[in-house]
Amino acid sequence: MSPTLVRHQLPNTGSMRCDDPPAPAGARARARDWAEIQERMLVPLYEAAYDRLGVGPGTRLLGLGCGSGLALLLAAARGAQVSGVDADECRLELARERLTPDGMPEVTRLVSGGLADAAPADAAFTVVTAFHPVGCGSSADGLTASLAAAAALAERGSAVVLGGWGPVERCATSGVLRVAQRLADSPARFAAGSAGWRLAGRDDLEELADRAGLRPDGSGRVACPFGYADMASAVRGLLSTGLFDAALEATEPRQVEKELAEALHPHQRADGTVWMPNVFRYLIARTR
Fold first, then answer.
1. CATH: 3.40.50.150, 3.30.70.20, 3.40.190.10, 3.90.79.10. Which one for 4-168+196-225+279-286?
2. Where in this protein does the record put region Disordered (predicted)?
3. pLDDT > 90: what percent of the chain?
4. The model's pTM
5. Which H, E and C letters describe 257-285, residue by residue?
């Protein structure tokens, strides 16, 4: 089956097009940094969830917030039929590049529309993933609504995977991300339910599943270290996450980059690489 990628605007959240103002070139560059530098940091999370669920031939998977498609690519390599939705059209363009074989531009469709456009024509989904960590980049209400809508497109009892940060004391990156909070013009933007980054709560994933009408069915923790070749790559990678967007709106970009580099300095090793150990958590929930 052909992978399907859909541009999807989550309820109550923003959506970025590649040609939206103010800086199309900047949007494309940031999406490329996400694809080339940052997205791979969560591969252990993707693989752990896929291993636990036995994702493979016969799996019909929907990725919410699929980004530039790395998680979909890994699932497709296991034999799964994959579809993806994301609010960022620049990232979706990169996902299409990854999931479309050379010389076969029609294999992957990019459709402007809602979740219904991502549904398989012949059968319902059997797995839904929302790997983008809870508390990062989307409103709680928007994510809840999207999960409920996705669950309606899945078979009864299908798995829904939710991803999130682990305990803050086991996530070295949490201290660096506080720079985003401090530089943003309104700390309230980073409160629970608003776009941006916030500290992880112990029951975040379970509470989200409950709000979306899902039934929790197990969880796990995965080591997801953030490692970069040098300081410049670390700054670019973290800026690509979107977690610093509010800070960039409120402060000169050079100042954000400077303070981010300063926060990263304790994590830079003698050879110039930057290394931050983190633990992420995932929850397996089931549709009712």
1. 3.40.50.150
2. 1-25
3. 61
4. 0.86
5. HHHHHHHHHHHECCCCCEEECCEEEEEEE
